[in-house]
Amino acid sequence: MASISDFAVWPSLVGASTLYWLILIIYRVFFHPLATYPGPLMAKMTDWYMVYMSLTAQNTYKRYELHMKYGKVVRVGANELSYSDEASIKDIFAQSTEPCLKAPAFYKGFSLTGRQSVFSTTDRNEHGRMRRLLSHGFSQQGVLDFQPEISQIIEQYIANIATARQPVELHDETHHLFLDITSRLSFAKSFDTLSGRPHQGAQDIETYFTVCPLFGLLPIARYFPFGPFKAARQAQPRIRRSVQGYIDEFRARLGKGTTEQGLLRHMLTACDTDTNTTLTDAELVENSVLFIIAGSGTSATTVLYLLYEVSKRPEVLERLTREIRDAFPDPYVMPAFDTATKLPYLNCVLQETLRLRGPIMSCSVRLSPGKSIGGSFVPYGTTVSNVPYATARDPEAFPDPEAFVPERWETATPWMRSMNRPFSTGNRNCIGMHLARVQVLLTICALYQRFDLALDPRVTEDMMVQRDFGLMTVSGKKLWMTATPRVNSNEAQCHGLDKGRGD
Ligand code: HEM
User: Which ipTM score applies to this complex?
Assistant: First the structure.
């Protein structure tokens, strides 16, 4: 039988915990070192405010809204500051003896093998070693070695579009293009999704990386026996096995003297002279899979938004098409990067697309080592970030910031360039930037060189809103366009350009 003291214990527990939370909230709101920074009351009281925004795909949009309301520095969590000014970009992201490092909790979940990739490692020395080992493959010259491989896959994409029923759906087709390119470069074996056949490896990678950040924040989620968690756990060993298989196969081909180019070749032959080390097999697996995640959706999203924004503006479409067709007049000859990269208007259009519709304009959070950020001392361990989505919409740097105006880049100032950071800044910026430029520019040039492109009326602005889960993708997952070939398919066949799947 329950005693009187049993009944007395619960009210005491509830009372004690209410008192604890009350004191904690009063401390956070009034006495915390960040108490004087402006921000919503809920965010000052609890980190769950921003967690809720992330889970409901509003993190980036909410931060932008808060910066417009409260100014350049906002307290967005009990122990977190968000910035949208220029000075803090340097303080948070630039090389420094007191760097703001990535927080380990979030990134641990990305690991497939127990080791980390260049993206997920939070250790400064380890990151430096991996960047050095990867740098040659990702250099401008290294990437140009892969141009023939990239062009060949773009030819298949173009042929698919030329032979597809019109209007053609470009969202999936463009994702397939970049999945095939990055798998070809990272694994020395294309997923060949442009053939129309689903690929188990591609599906497994998507399944795992959709939920893995949660595994870092909440390690027990790895063992949840249901839904996406179970699917991710099952996908993990399959990814490891298949990628190790690609590595072993390519190593054998290298031994026989293959001349095949790609990132895997560079990774297998790279040696870091500072540490006298090479990449281990686990590191090869981690990095080559990471390149699929980092390189395919980002490039596809960029191409899709460029096509969309340009199609809505006849004068931009006309000027861009003319520039590309003047540079590449023979529709039977695949555009070359050395010419594409010098086309001034194309570069403006790409810059403006990345400013307004960049795929990673969400923020990457860091930890303050206890130093001055944006002109004020920020205590050790405070989470800090600078929101690219907000700096790229600063109305002083970019008048009429929501308007798509490629011409603004014709007179770009250093300030505009530092406020627009689609590839981030500092030593953790995008290592794949040159590769992204090569594959995106070649695709855009090939599309406008070969087709007259027009937006299908069923594509709405709502479908093109960016879905904000870190990677900011096309929410409607469809982009229909009418692509009218400038050469008919019989002629193309004669010139060997019509090697696609067809419909
Ligand atoms: C238009 C295309 C792309 C955009 C806009 C983009 C943007 C970015 C951004 C903003 C970051 C920093 C992320 C952070 O701080 O958390 C990043 C990092 C990274 N990106 Fe890209 N990226 C693109 C294409 C690529 C490609 C094609 C690859 C390789 C195949 C790649 C590989 C990486 C890697 C490995 C990192 C981590 C670098 C490090 O931490 O040292 N990216 N990218």
Answer: 0.99
